[in-house]
Structure formats: structure tokens, C-alpha cells
Please model this.
Amino acid sequence: MSTQTNHVQKIKVNIPTALRSFTSNEKSVELAGSTVADVLQHLTDRYPSLRQHLYDGDGNLRSFVSIYLGDEDIRHLDREHTVVSHADELSIVPSIAGGAVVARF
Model:
């Protein structure tokens, strides 16, 4: 029988101001997980109303939501399958839509 201890690593997730109302105004939370998908699953389990802002009806990350591992967009890594470690930080960065400025002469 193995006496190996299973340590759960916690990853810091930075919550943008626009989404803090769905996380009890937390600026960041620490969650367990070995991949980005695991961590985001724990995030939306803890804050269920956040799910609709991160995922579409098919369970895919919304196109206007970027997830960064450190300074790297996970779209340039292994997307949600990107492996994380205890020293990593995830940041959620929603795109902000703006209007166009039209010059009239």
C-alpha cells in the first residue's frame, strides 16, 4: 500500500473588475487544478453565475474571453488543456466592445 500524500496545488486566478460582481467582489481566488480547464471548472463551481459569462451554450470558452497563463494567452499554448503549476497565475481578460468614432467634414 502506498503512503504517498496527494497534494492539491492551488492556482491564483485574477478576476477582472467587470466580473467581480459574480465572485463576491473578489479580486483573485485560489483554486485547485492541474490544467486551465480544471481550474476554470472549480471557479464556475464556486461561482455558478460566472459560467454564462465565460462559456457559451455548448460549453466552449466565449470568443471574447481571453485566459492568460502568466503573460501568455492560452490560445497560443494548449488552450484549456494547458498544464498549470502552483507557481502559475491565470488572468481572465474579457474583451470590451466600443463604438466607432466617425469623423464628418
Observations:
- The radius of gyration is 16 Å.
- The longest strand covers residues 89-94.
